[in-house]
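Per your request, structure below.
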């Protein structure tokens, strides 16, 4: 495919929108919504995190509730199934002999005080609940439920700015700056998850996924002389930005109405259109049409295959690279998390994972990179 037309060297004057970001090269701290103070009462007794739990343990702990379902067993009796989570992972909880009143007593996203016993079922740890009740928010240390600390998200935000400002093409750099100086957009980007269940499914997961993907792209791009690094980097940034509107993430992770009806691919193209208009207003000249089309193609083709919800197959070098690198980052994170969450079992293998149609080897005694043995 022919490359976009030569770029103009005219840069936007970002001082016109009252922004010191472009000149200082730093990103403002916009993460106050993620910062929580430790609760003195909760610090009296250290909590047991999900990643620390083993079989046949008595549990009396606070968890975040998600995906609650009231089901009927073979005998017609009701039982409650809930996904319980903290910052280290999640597990399924079962409450036998439940009823409608119990089901209605809490919502997804509530903090629950749960008492019960752990057991393994089909190779996975689950919790058999004997008692549950909503917990007073004043007694909850919300940092126990944030996978990423505020400092981690600050670091990722700063690195995002560094990578985007390393773009040489003036049109693409101005477009990136237009996103970076939008504090409302950045506040949502640094809070949103990248998914509900599959990968990076926690607050702050979206920016972690984007920055990780951009780091890999930055390393890979020099290996292929015909690959446009600037286009690939901006594609990594843009490909999932629609998830800030596709998902809800105040506490529980779920799909918004827009997410269900439209999806993040279409939402991302709409967000790109809005920023393109802003860039043109501030720069006083249009962005080349071919460049706009290539940018949109990166978004609409990044799922790679029609059966995976991709409106178009990747048809540029940058789109091909984006698809495979995006898939790599998602799979590496998801499998790594599966292995970490199953660390407290004696088996060298995870349970069978239906999504991947395989088990994963966790490793027994094996050499690490420095030659030492690890378990």
């Amino acid at each position: 495919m022919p490359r976009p037309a030569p770029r103009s060297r005219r840069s936007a004057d970002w001082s016109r929108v009252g922004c010191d970001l472009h000149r200082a090269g730093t990103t403002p701290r916009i993460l106050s919504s993620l910062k929580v103070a430790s609760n003195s009462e909760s610090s009296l007794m250290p909590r047991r995190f999900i990643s620390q739990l083993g079989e046949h343990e008595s549990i009396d702990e606070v968890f975040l509730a998600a995906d609650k379902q009231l089901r009927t067993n073979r005998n017609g009796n009701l039982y409650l199934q809930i996904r319980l989570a903290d910052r280290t992972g999640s597990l399924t909880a079962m409450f036998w002999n439940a009823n409608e009143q119990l089901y209605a007593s809490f919502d997804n996203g509530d903090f629950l005080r749960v008492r019960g016993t752990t057991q393994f079922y089909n190779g996975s740890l689950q919790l058999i609940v004997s008692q549950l009740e909503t917990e007073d928010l004043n007694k909850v240390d919300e940092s126990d439920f944030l996978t990423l600390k505020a400092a981690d998200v600050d670091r990722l935000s700063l690195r995002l700015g560094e990578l985007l400002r390393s773009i040489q093409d003036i049109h693409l750099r101005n477009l990136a700056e237009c996103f970076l100086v939008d504090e409302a957009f950045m506040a949502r980007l640094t809070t949103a998850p990248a998914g509900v269940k599959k990968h990076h499914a926690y607050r702050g997961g979206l920016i972690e996924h984007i920055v990780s993907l951009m780091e890999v792209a930055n390393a890979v791009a020099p290996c292929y002389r015909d690959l446009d690094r600037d286009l690939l980097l901006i594609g990594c940034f843009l490909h999932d930005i629609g998830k800030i509107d596709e998902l809800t993430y105040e506490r529980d992770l779920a799909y918004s109405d827009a997410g269900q009806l439209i999806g993040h691919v279409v939402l991302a193209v709409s967000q790109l259109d809005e920023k393109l208009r802003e860039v043109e207003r501030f720069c006083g000249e249009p962005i080349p049409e071919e460049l706009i089309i290539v940018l949109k193609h990166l978004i609409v083709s990044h799922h790679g295959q029609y059966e995976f919800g991709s409106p178009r197959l990747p048809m540029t070098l940058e789109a091909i690279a984006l698809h495979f690198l995006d898939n790599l980052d998602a799979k590496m994170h998801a499998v790594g998390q599966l292995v970490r969450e199953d660390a407290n079992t004696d088996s060298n293998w995870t349970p069978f994972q239906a999504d991947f149609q395989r088990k994963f080897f966790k490793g027994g005694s094996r050499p690490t990179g420095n030659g030492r043995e690890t378990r």
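The chain has two domains: 43-144, 146-334.

Regards,
D.
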